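Predict structure. Input: Phosphonate ABC transporter, permease protein PhnE, 444 residues.
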Amino acid sequence: MAIDTLDHGFDRAEVFARIRRRTIFTIAAPVMILAYLVYTWFAFDISGILERAQPERAAILATDSVAYKVHVTKDIRRGGLEVAIEGERTATYDNANAPDWVKIDGDNAVVDLGEGYIVDIAGKTMKFTVPGYGVITATATKKGVETQLPPGDVPDWIKDDPRKFDARPTIDRRVQVTKTKIEVHNYFGGWENFWFAFNSPLHGKSFGDLVSLAMSDQRIDPDRSNLSLIVHEFLSNPDWQHGEVFTALFETVMMAVLGTLTAALVGLPLAFIAARNFTPSFVLRFGVRRLFDFLRGIDMLIWSLIFIRAFGLGPLTGALAIAFTDTGTLGKLFSEALENIDNKQVEGVRATGASQIQRYRYGVIPQILPVFVSQVLYYLESNTRSATVIGALGAGGIGLMLVETMRTSRDWENTSYIIILTILVVIVMDQMSSWLRRKLIEGK
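Output follows.
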C-alpha cells in the first residue's frame, strides 16, 4: 500500500501547504509594505513637498548658525558709509578703525572679499568683480536699480530685479543694491562677540590678557574687582544673554526634577492601591487604574496648555504637566512591578513578627527598588528634553528662549548655542542618572 508520507510520518501535502503559506506570507508582507509606502507618498503629497523645498535657504541658515557676517552699508539717501557686525548699531566700527579688508574714502569704499572678489562702491554705483564671470555694475536710481551684466547667460546666483539687485556667487559673499542703499555681506566663521559685547572694555582681549587682568590690582571699574567685571561683562552680554540662558536652563532642569519627583512620590502609594496582591477591592483597584489611564492618556503638551490657562505662564505649569502625565505612567509601571514580587520574601519578614509597614519596607521595597530607581531616573532624563518643548509653549525655561531666537532668521547662531547647551544638559543628566543607578542598585 503506497502512502504519500515522508520518512518520519509527516503528510507530504501538509508540508507543501505550509511551505506555500510561508512563501505567500514572505511575498505578501513586502508587497503590503510597498503599497503602504506608495499610499503615504501620495497621501502626504511628498512630491509637492519636495518641489516646494528650498535647500538653498537651509544652506544659508546652516551657514548663519556657525558663522557671522559683517555688513558694509552705503546709505544713498542720507549719505555715509557704515561697517557693522550683523548690521547692529551697537556693533559698528569706527570708520577710522575699519577692518583691513575695507578701504574707506569718504562715502566711497573698496571691499576685498578675498580670492579676487572685489566690490567698488562709488557714489550710487556698485561694481562687483567676480572671478571667472566678469564685472557686475549696479546703479541705484530714483525708480530702482539699473544693472549691467557681462554678456551671456545670467547665473542662478544673481537675482536681477528692477527694484532690488542681489548677487551671491558663494555662500560667504553677497551684495545687494536697492534705490536707498548698497550693502555688502562678508561672512566669517565662528560666533561674533560671544564672550563680550562689541562696546565692552574687555572686547578683543585674549585669554592671557583676561588672566593677567583678573590678577592685577589696577581696576578698570573702581566699583568692582577685575574678576567680578569679567564675570559681569560675560553674563550681561546683550547679544548672547549668557546669564538669561543659564537661568532658563536651570528653570528647565528644575521643571523636569520637580515634575518627575512629584510623579514618583504620588505614583508609588497609588501603585499599592492599584496592585492586585495588595488591594483586594476590585472597585478601588479599577478606579485607580482608570485614573492612571486618564493621566497618561492626555499628552504632556495638552496638560501644559491646560495649566497655562489655569495658572498662567511660568515653570510651575511645566512641572505640573510633567507630574500629571508621569504619575499615570510611573503608577502603572510600579503597580505591575508590585504584582510581580516574590511573596516568599514578604512571608519571611512577616514570620519575624514585623508590622505591615515593616513588611512593605523590608519585604516589598527592596524588590521593586531597581524598577523604581531605573524608571524614575529614565523619566528624569527624558523629561529634561520634554521640559524644553513644554517651555516653548509658554511654560518658560530654555524652550521659550529657543523659540524667540528662531522667530528671526538673523539669530540662528543663538539658536545653535541654545541647542548645544540643551544637548550638553541632557548628556550630563544621562551621566548622572547612570552614576546614581550604579550607586543605588549595584552598590558601586
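Confidence is low (pLDDT under 50) at residues 1-6.
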